Amino acid sequence: MDAAVTLLDQLIAEGLLVPTGVDGLYGRSGVFEDVIARFEALVTRTGGGDGAEVLRFPPAMTRTQLETSGYMKSFPQLAGTVHSFCGGDHEHFDLLAKLDEGESWTEHQAPTDIALTPAACYPLYPMVASQGPVSADGRLFDVQSYCFRHEPSADPARMQLFRMREYVRCGTAEQVQAFRQGWIERAEAMIASLELPFEVVPANDPFFGRAGKMMKVSQREQGLKLEMVIPVANAQPTACLSFNYHQDHFAHTWGLRLAEGGPAHTGCVGFGLERIALALFRHHGLAPAQWPETVRRVLWG
Ligand code: AMP
Ligand code: ZN
User: Fold this and answer.
1) pLDDT band at residue 228 using 50, 70 and 90 as cut-offs
2) Of 88, 151, 212, 299, which has the fewest Cβ atoms less than 10 A away?
3) Which ligand is nearest to the CA of 242?
4) Where are the beta strands (DSSP E) in the chain?
């Protein structure tokens, strides 16, 4: 039997996820949301003392920012852009006729200035760059957003709209590397306290096409992306947290500078909130009230 479909069926039967008819697009129950809220509170208890600047963007960025970020070069297959009807009466008449006939009606939809956020940290870099060079202490941010990726799948852990909580560091190479190492150790302690099995492994982003193959190899060879994988719904464990070191990539993209001169380095730690909730349901059962007392104490105090 397909284990991924089985877990999804169970989550739906229990009412934890509400199907919509589109793979990867679900409603969430109050119980599911409470698990996410409690896990986020644990993240805040762990990282909240570091003095991060808290920022929340809506799940969208400007289309220009998405273009400048290079996302369409690396991940065109995942991007989502928002289109709206921009015609007049004639086009509206045509649209309604097509809808009536059950025909494709989207030809009058035109791109707006808005694109969906692919990762919670994406809207941050242009903002930081616009605020001028980064001082000697660097900067630290706490962001969270719904993110869109066009990767429809029957695997409940691969959603098209999901939330990512991130801490993002901006500063010297040493500052960013120390931040990443520190978060790997904290994340290991956090996930162990939730009594979930995990492993931290080298990883790569899904760069598109033939040119993307080299990017994947080079990212792995340089150890720029690590993931914490936890068994969720598949035979293969699923990446639930990511630890990324971008080097000075976003400095070149956005003009991020250090006050003392030179490009700023960046890195981020990303918590896949739905995936972590799903891992908890998979390992401890579909009823949080019956989870081990030790796990409940960590999340609900
Ligand atoms: P990434 O930028 O790909 O490293 O994603 C950051 C984190 O978001 C990952 O570690 C996952 O936990 C989570 N994530 C990525 N893609 C998805 C998805 N399609 N559905 C749910 N969570 C995801
Ligand atoms: Zn990030």
Assistant:
1) very high
2) 88
3) 1
4) 17-19, 26-28, 53-55, 60-62, 81-85, 109-116, 139-148, 161-171, 199-202, 225-230, 238-247, 265-272
Q: How far is the CA of 270 from the centre of ligand 1 (A)?
A: 8
Pick the ligand that lies closest to the CA of residue 160. 1
* Residues with C-beta less than 6 Å from any ligand 1 atom: 119, 149, 151, 157-159, 162, 164, 227, 239-242, 270, 272, 274-275
pLDDT tens digits for range 90-148: 999 999 999 999 999 999 999 999 999 999 999 999 999 999 999 999 999 999 999 99
Which residue reads 């119980």 in tokens? 31
| Angle 27-29-30 from CA coordinates, rounded to 5° | 140
Q: What is the DSSP string of 101-118?
A: HT---GGGEEEEEEEE-S
CA of 244 to the centre of ligand 2 (A): 7
pTM of the model: 0.97
Tell me the pLDDT band of 4, cut-offs 50, 70 and 90: low
Residue owning the nearest CA to atom 10 of ligand 1:
241
Q: Is the pLDDT of residue 3 over 70?
A: no
DSSP string, 171-239: E-HHHHHHHHHHHHHHHHHHHHHTT---EEEE------HHHHHHHHHHHHHTT-EEEEEE--SSSS-EE
Distance CA(253)–CA(241), nearest Å, equals: 25
